[in-house]
Amino acid sequence: MAKIRYLAVISEEPEALARFYVDEIGMAELDRSAAGDISLTDGYYNLTLFRQRADLMELRKETGLSHFGMDVDSIDTVLAKYRELVPGGVAVREPDGVQYGDVRIFDPECNPISLSESGFGVGQGKRGLPRIGHIAIHTLQPQRSADFLTALFGMRELRTTAERRAQGRFNCFMGDGATNLALHPYYRTRDADGFALYDRIGHDGLEERPEDRHFGFHHFGFLMRDAAQKVEQLSHGKSMVADRPAERPYAEFRVLDPDGNGFDLTQNKGWEVDIDKWERVD
């Protein structure tokens, strides 16, 4: 199965953001580009912080989480399947450098997905702690996105999806054996006639601003030892932190980094990364 091993973020000040993830979370610097982009790693993931600029070739140039990437055995095989699933689907060669994969494709909602055959500069990778274990995306049709990821990459829909369906919700949760990918509906509620409704529900105790409800990539998460102690440290003026609701199946805490990007921290709850396979730190 293909594996998610890359996550891209656009930042006005990638230097300051990189310092936060190295000093406070424990990531290591992997590489820098001449343009000021910085790639970090947890030993398995490539987390690239792109400097926001006019010539950055992204569909969406606003700051925040931008796209993810899949480490695959054969890009040619994936592209052949992609063109079967999406006739006329666009595939783009990415620039050279550790900050990129080899080729980029797009999911049914135009979210970019980078493809690499070499682990995005991390190689085989070694999963230690702390490590990225979760990515969440706001979508219009979570099930359509889930079906696409299953057909193209072999990702599996998790039992947590069925639990949400039983609650009348439309979230889909996917796993590749190492990462939990949550596909959340951008419009979360519907009226009796099936029309989607605007709502003002906040995220996990943090006051939601209008700009927080953005379409596409929303937050990610780290599995780490001593998560509660780290949250206590971050709470002392370093970041906004909130407990996640007890009824949520994943993660104990939500944190905002210096750019306002949300990420979860978990130790005991963990994430389901494959069917009935949970990753926790006991």
Key descriptive features of the protein:
282 residues; alpha+beta; 2,3-Dihydroxybiphenyl 1,2-Dioxygenase, domain 1; 2 domains; eight-stranded mixed β-sheet; 5 helices
What does this structure look like?
Mean pLDDT is 90; it is low at 201-211. Helix 2 crosses helix 3 (142-153). An eight-stranded mixed β-sheet has the order 2-3-4-1-5-8-7-6, covered by helices on one side. A hairpin with a 5-residue loop joins strand 7 (103-106) and strand 8. It is globular. The two termini are 27 Å apart. It folds into two domains: 3-121, Roll (2,3-Dihydroxybiphenyl 1,2-Dioxygenase, domain 1); 131-279, 2,3-Dihydroxybiphenyl 1,2-Dioxygenase, domain 1. The relative contact order is 0.16. The protein is built from five helices and 20 strands. By secondary structure, the chain is an alpha+beta fold.
